[in-house]
Amino acid sequence: MLNILVVGANGQIGKHLVKLIQDNGDQARAMIRKEEQANYFKDLGAETAVVNLEDEVDTISNAAEGVDAVVFTAGSGPKTGKDKTLMIDLDGAVKTIQAAEQANVKRFVMISSFDTSREAIQSAPESFAPYVVAKHYADEWLLNSDLDYTIIHPGLLTNEPGTNQVNLGANVERGEVPREDIAKVIYTSLKNDTTIGKRFRAVAGQTAVEEAIQSV
């Protein structure tokens, strides 16, 4: 049984992921910001840890004690300013990586942005550029760590029901993808050591998630 810390569990991908983990007989630990968010996860049988990503590394590390993997799905959201993008999408991500190292958790899955290259930063609209910058440097920090990482670059996220059909790869074209399918890609990646050390894009497609994961 895998014990998985889901950071940003109260987000839409996070909620799908925690349910998927519990439904498949593994154990999720939902890292949430407020105690009043806990009931949803407790009803699923998940553990909870109330931690703010603006807290110290030690606090995040305590939440990661004893787990087999950490998944970072947190984000500041489109309604916040550059300050929260910096504090959550960059500093929060880096502190979570440091916390995993401190807690001796080797496996780490990062939900990034579709394109975090230098070119994407230069061509991004002014309002979106800080987010791409934050994701770029969070990815770089993970790439330069000693963790067994997987970085997933999802396309435009939608709330459509999942189809379990995706297109994964380093150079897939930009497109939409249901959040529920991204949760499935995360969970399947955790079950497949072949995804360690890989980064790939994920959009809707015609290949079953389990099969697509084998070819990234």
TrEMBL record:
SUPFAM superfamilies for the chain: NAD(P)-binding Rossmann-fold domains
Entry-linked Gene3D superfamilies: NAD(P)-binding Rossmann-like Domain
Superkingdom, natural source: Bacteria
Domain NAD(P)-binding: 8-192
Segments passing through the bilayer: none
Name of the protein described by the UniProt record: Putative sugar epimerase YhfK
Organism field: Oceanobacillus oncorhynchi
Phylogenetic classification of the source organism: Bacteria, Bacillati, Bacillota, Bacilli, Bacillales
